């Protein structure tokens, strides 16, 4: 690596770090939204009300069965008759809708893995169905869902790079801007890859901490 490359990477760093801030914002908001919406979809999916379970099944099938990029483009360019979403708004909405479908299935599998005896124990204490679910089932299901859900959270961080096609100047978009004005772009993208790797590694450390804190291995 010669001095020109080092200077290019060093000079690009402040510009790229501004993109990291936008990437972190997109990721954090999308993660929070997908976690909550995913839980709602999971509860609808296991509901005995056929309309709710049917809608949830369709939702999961649609958003897992179609490309995220196409969904983002549809929201940004195709829904202007409904609302003129900004690039950031379209990216957030697309990420939340897409990944909540995956997270809902992780939640659903974890909820269904809890034995019927746990429900019966709650009923024996005088709890109604909602109370048993909230106080007994959900805490156990949350522990069991951490590994698969965390895979989706990491995917959200990586998929936030697709916001670049919506003119959002997140990390990847800023790398493209630099690349457009430089002949030697290899090291710029290497720099960006390590930034994404750093973000996902932080999430992985948090996952490990939660698994140890909650004794996830003992709950499986």
Using brief descriptors, characterize the structure shown.
220 residues; mainly alpha; MetI-like fold; 9 helices
What does this structure look like?
The model has no long low-confidence stretch (mean pLDDT 91). The chain has 220 residues and is mainly alpha-helical. The protein is elongated, with a radius of gyration of 21 Å. The chain has one domain: MetI-like (MetI-like fold, Orthogonal Bundle), CATH 1.10.3720.10. The protein is built from nine helices and no strands. It has helices at 3-45, 50-65, 68-78, 87-112, 116-124, 129-159, 171-180, 186-213, 216-219. Helices cover 81% and strands 0% of the residues.
Number of domains: 1
CATH architecture: Orthogonal Bundle
Oligomer: single chain
Indicate the mean pLDDT. Answer: 91
Q: Element order, helices and strands?
A: HHHHHHHHH
Structural class: mainly alpha
């Amino acid at each position: 690596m010669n001095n020109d490359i080092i200077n290019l990477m060093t000079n690009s760093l402040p510009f790229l770090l501004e993109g990291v801030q936008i990437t972190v914002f997109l990721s954090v908001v999308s993660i929070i939204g997908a976690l909550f919406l995913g839980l709602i979809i999971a509860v609808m999916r296991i509901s005995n009300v056929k309309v709710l379970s049917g809608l949830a099944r369709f939702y999961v099938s649609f958003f897992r069965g179609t490309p995220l990029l196409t969904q983002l483009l549809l929201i940004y360019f195709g829904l202007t008759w409904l609302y003129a979403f900004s690039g950031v708004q379209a990216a957030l909405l697309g990420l939340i809708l897409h990944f909540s479908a995956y997270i809902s299935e992780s939640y659903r599998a974890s909820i269904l893995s809890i034995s019927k005896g746990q429900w019966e124990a709650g009923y024996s204490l005088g709890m109604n169905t909602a109370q048993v679910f909230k106080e007994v089932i959900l805490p156990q299901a949350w522990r069991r869902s951490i590994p698969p859900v965390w895979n989706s959270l990491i995917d959200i961080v990586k998929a936030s790079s697709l916001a670049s096609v919506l003119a959002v100047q997140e990390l990847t978009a800023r790398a493209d801007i630099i690349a457009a004005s430089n002949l030697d772009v290899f090291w710029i993208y290497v720099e960006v890859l390590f930034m994404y790797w750093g973000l996902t590694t932080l999430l992985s450390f948090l996952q490990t901490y939660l698994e140890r804190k909650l004794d996830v291995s003992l709950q499986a």
